[in-house]
Amino acid sequence: MKVFKINGKGETGIGTLIIFIAIVLVAAIAASVLLGTAGSLQQKALTTGKQTTQEVSSGIQVISLTGSDGQNGDIEVFELTVKLSAGSDPLALNDTIISFDTKNSSQNLVFTGVANTSTYSAIYVKTGPDYLPNYITVGDVIRLSFNSSYSIGQGQFVRTKIIPKRGVIVPVDFVTPDVISTQRVNLYP
C-alpha cells in the first residue's frame, strides 16, 4: 500500500499569487488616482499662476490729480489723469471703481460716462495703438472726472483709490492747499 503525503506548497503559492495580483491592482488604481490628481493640480497651478501674473502686472499709473472750481475756497470737481502701467493688460473702465474718502463722506464711483456724485466719466486725452472704447490700453492717457458729494475745504486730507477688477489698487492720498483761490488746483503729485 502506498501512502501519499499531501504537500501544502501549491496552495501557499496560489494564495501568494492572489495576494500579489491584488496588491498590483490596488497599486495601479492608486497610481491612476495620483496621476489624475497631479494633472488636475497642475492645471489649477497654471491657471492660478496666470491670474496672479495679471494681478501683479496689471495696474493704472496716476499722472496727476487736479481739482477745479476752487475760486470760492473749496473744491467739488476732480480730475484724475491716468495711463496703464507698462506690461499691463487692457482694463475695462466698467470694471474699475474709484473710491473717494474724506472726513465727511465716502464714495464708491462707477463708470457711466457722466460725472456726478456716484459715477465718473472718462475723456481720452491720447489714444494708444490698441485703442478700445471704455478700456484703458497701452498708450492711452485718460482723464477721469468725478464730483465729490461734499465740498472739500482748505487743508483737508483726502484718500482716493483706483480699484480695478484685476490688478493693483492704486492709492492717491493728498491734502488740499491751505489757501484755495484759483479755478484749477493741482493736488497730486
Care to describe what's here?
With 189 residues, the protein is of the alpha+beta class. The protein has two domains: 8-57; 60-188, Immunoglobulin-like, CATH 2.60.40. 26% of the residues lie in helices and 39% in strands. The protein has one helix and eleven strands, in the order αβββββββββββ. The strands form two sheets. It has a nine-stranded mixed sheet with strand order 10-9-4-5-6-8-2-1-11, with no helix packed on it. It has a two-stranded antiparallel ribbon with strand order 3-7. A hairpin with a 4-residue loop joins strand 4 and strand 5. The mean pLDDT is 86.
For this entry, give a set of tags.
Immunoglobulin-like; 39% strand; alpha+beta; 1 helix; 2 domains; 189 residues
Instruction: Work out the helix count.
Output: 1
Low-confidence stretches: none
Kindly state the mean pLDDT as a whole number? 86
**Annotated CATH architecture of the largest domain:** Sandwich
- Overall number of domains: 2
Q: What strand order characterises the main sheet?
A: 10-9-4-5-6-8-2-1-11
Report the radius of gyration as a whole number of Å. Answer: 33 Å
Q: What is the H/E order?
A: HEEEEEEEEEEE
Structural class: alpha+beta
Question: Strand content of the residues, in percent?
Answer: 35-45%
Annotated CATH topology of the largest domain: Immunoglobulin-like
* Percent of residues in helices: 25-40%
CATH class of the largest domain: Mainly Beta
How far apart the termini lie comes to 115 Å
Q: State the shape.
A: rod-shaped
Count of beta strands: 11
Largest sheet: 9 strands, mixed
